[in-house]
Amino acid sequence: MSASYTYTENVNTNLICCICRAPFVDPVTTTTCAHTFCLECIHTALSISSQCPVDRSRLTVHDLRGANPLLRNLVDELVVECPNRQSGCNETSQRQLVGIHVRDSCPYTKVPCSHPNCNQRVYRKDARLHSETCPAQGILACPDCKVDCLANELEAHRRLCALEEVTCNACGVIMIRAELAPHTDICPLVAVPCEQAANGCPWSGARHHLLDHVSTCPYEAIKGFFATHTVKVASLEDENAALRRQVGELEGQLRCVAADVHATRVSLGPWFRSDASTSSAASPVVSPNTSTAATVSSPVSLASDLAPSPPPRPDGARRISALNAALLGVSSDAPYVPPDAEPAFEYDHHRALPAPTININTSLEGALTSLRNSVVALAGSLDSSSRRHDVTLMTETLRMHEEVQSLRAIVHGLRMQVHQLMMERSQMGLYAARSGAAGAGDGGPWSTRAEYLNEQSSTGPPMMVPLTTTVRRTTENKL
Ligand SMILES: [Zn+2]
Ligand SMILES: [Zn+2]
Ligand SMILES: [Zn+2]
Ligand SMILES: [Zn+2]
Ligand SMILES: [Zn+2]
Ligand SMILES: [Zn+2]
Ligand SMILES: [Zn+2]
């Protein structure tokens, strides 16, 4: 009997019967030599020989007693597999409980069919299905339609049988089931809703009252409005759905653009400054070129550094202008040179550095390439600008040089004129002295000055330069 158990784990050798080499089943202990065996094993052994199988001492069934309860519990609580494992049961349980499992609940225990005329034994799990289809059960005919049915299916058939007599719940007329549905559609006592119930009419009543209600139903009067309203609502719903789709697509595009902008910001790093901090923030919509230029130039104020500003007029030129005005008697407010010549030295605003265009509408890589090209263009512009500035400076220097030359000539002419005047004056003084009193023989301070000037004049020939000629020459130099 012990061979029918399959133990799930290794068993202590002290619990093994030396006859069957398996854990004890119903263990008994000898009173003479204190050896323990399965009850069945030792009975079989003693029927052959009245000796203890271990030590061969004399032994009879009267020397056997039930084993220690502790030992019984140890072997009864060993975990074993269900004996129906071969059939498919995977249950395991204590050995003392496995018999109850097999007897009462194991789905793979074979049980007899419930029909008295059937001799089959089927798995417990299949018993219900077998019982419903068991060929040994009786065949019964439906009393209404006379169709043959299995005995256990007759009740279900009669609930649906088309020929069974049924009663209309509204009018109480008796008819076969097949006629009930058409009858319900026309039965005058069946409760029906108003035809305008979908539009909100709460009325409900027997069908033969419906016509009376329709004549007074307030919803019936405006059913035309409901019809057009329904069409309009349907078209609006379609439009709404289309708009929702568009909004969804636009949101997707917006997310893409936002991701691009974020990537661009990350790429720009410290070169990025938000529109809020630029001067163009006043208007919410800025042209791409404006914002891009501001963005590129922001960290180092590149644009303001490169912004063209007219070079200030040399301070010396203003002083020369004042001097000429004093000499020629013209207003000091008037320009020193003719007005039409002045713009030649003004900084040309229209030749300001060209703002490199940056295309940020393409991909991030395209935008970066564009930015790089823009920086290169700016560097080139800066270079040419400084060269232009050098040329302007040189021209200005040459002009100043010529002005100084012409001024020297003017001063020389003035000196000659002063010399002439002093000469005339000293001659007049000498003449007066000779014709005047003899007491003033030494001539006084005036005569001394005149002689000195005369000596100076002898170093070179007196030169008279008309002032008008000098001014014209200066003008030519300017040009
Ligand atoms: Zn013994
Ligand atoms: Zn045994
Ligand atoms: Zn089982
Ligand atoms: Zn059966
Ligand atoms: Zn029937
Ligand atoms: Zn009816
Ligand atoms: Zn109504």
General description of the model:
Keywords: Coiled coil, Metal-binding, Zinc, Zinc-finger. InterPro entries: Znf_RING, Znf_RING/FYVE/PHD, Znf_RING_CS, Znf_TRAF. Pfam families: zf-C3HC4_2, zf-TRAF_2. This protein has 479 residues and is mainly α. The chain folds into 4 domains: 105 residues, Zinc/RING finger domain, C3HC4 (zinc finger) (Herpes Virus-1); 48 residues, Zinc/RING finger domain, C3HC4 (zinc finger) (Herpes Virus-1, 2-Layer Sandwich), CATH 3.30.40; 31 residues, no CATH class; 165 residues. 49% of the residues lie in helices and 8% in strands. It is built from 15 helices and 13 strands. The strands form 6 sheets. A 3-stranded antiparallel β-sheet has the order 2-1-3. Helix 13 crosses helix 14. The chain is elongated and about 200 Å long. The N and C termini lie far apart (137 Å). The chain binds zinc ion (7 copies).
